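#structure-requests
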Amino acid sequence: MPLRFAVPLLLFGALVVFLGIGLQRDPRLVPSPLIGKPAPQFSLGTLGAPEKPVQRDDLLGRAYLLNVWASWCAQCREEHPLLLELGKAGQVNLIGLNYHDELEAGRQWLSERGDPYRMTLFDPQGKLGLDLGVYGVPETFLIDAKGVIRYKHIGPLNQDVLSRDILPLLANLERDAQ
């Protein structure tokens, strides 16, 4: 085969392999540079007590799922029934982060739909969300007992992601913490 035909054919083959690998990846799996690193420091009030700050170190000692949500987020409605089940089951230490929202809107949203969270941090300026590298809501982070980010999920949680990724990792983290 002449070289003038072989080079374009090899380049085309490499492009097909590259695109084929890309199509098999989950677009919701965006690598986070924060995986394996301590969660950012913060001092935020909660929806229940905005005047009483909670800091990152107040959450140390037990792994938790940090769910970033907002009252204006349509996809947050999609995952909320699953979060309610998790909250009722008590198997997950579930912390909410109300992101770029208004205090009363966040409170009303939880009042109308049910509150699955042990507490909901209030981040009206989105500073913690920015420090966490939040692209949009909903996003969920699994943070271990020492405050290290172990997992990030972009988009609404579903039973498949919970069963396949989060609950097994959480069980390992809790076993390691003992």
